[in-house]
């Protein structure tokens, strides 16, 4: 886990900074000015490392938050699609699949709802916009509503 390594490095840097600061505090007045300056420079350099390691951790946490958000969304939506043949669909009020198809691979593996679009060269093929998986259109086509709405004719 890279995050654990970063935390380990961060703790090491903080320990080094603390030791340098203690050395400066405990030095008696006879400490050479040049040596003192050197120690302060070490301290500043170590604090710069701490800052860099914190930025790395901040980025790692942000990425984890994003992934958690995606998984929570997927978890809440896990029963929201119904399968028919080679695709998933949003169910109508009675739970029957309707409308445009979603990729089976992306939903089952990545828990992401990704549309299937027509291949520009082969009309009988549907392609996932996410993973590029190809589907036979007759097994993954649009499903029209069973009847027209009243008052339309
Ligand atoms: Zn896909």
What does this structure look like?
Keywords: Coiled coil. Residues 40-74 form a coiled coil. This protein has helices at 2-26, 33-76, 104-110, and strands spanning 82-84, 87-91, 97-103, 116-118, 125-128, 134-136. The protein has 153 residues and is α+β, with helices and mostly antiparallel strands. The chain folds into 2 domains: 2-76; 82-139, no CATH class. It has a 3-stranded antiparallel beta sheet. The chain has a 3-stranded antiparallel beta sheet with strand order 4-5-6, with no helix packed on it. Helix 1 runs antiparallel to helix 2 (33-76). The longest helix has 44 residues, at 33-76. It is rod-shaped, with a radius of gyration of 30 Å. The structure holds zinc ion. Residues 103, 105-106, 114, 128, 130-131, 133 line the site of zinc ion.
Tell me the strand order in the biggest sheet: 1-2-3
> How many domains, as an integer?
2
- Helical stretch count? 3
Find the count of extended strands (DSSP E, 2+ residues): 6
In terms of DSSP E residues, the strand content is 15-25%
Give the proportion of residues in helices.
Answer: 40-55%
Mean pLDDT: 88
Spans of at least 5 consecutive residues whose pLDDT stays below 50 are none
Per the principal axes of the C-alpha atoms, what is the gross shape?
rod-shaped
Radius of gyration: 30 Å
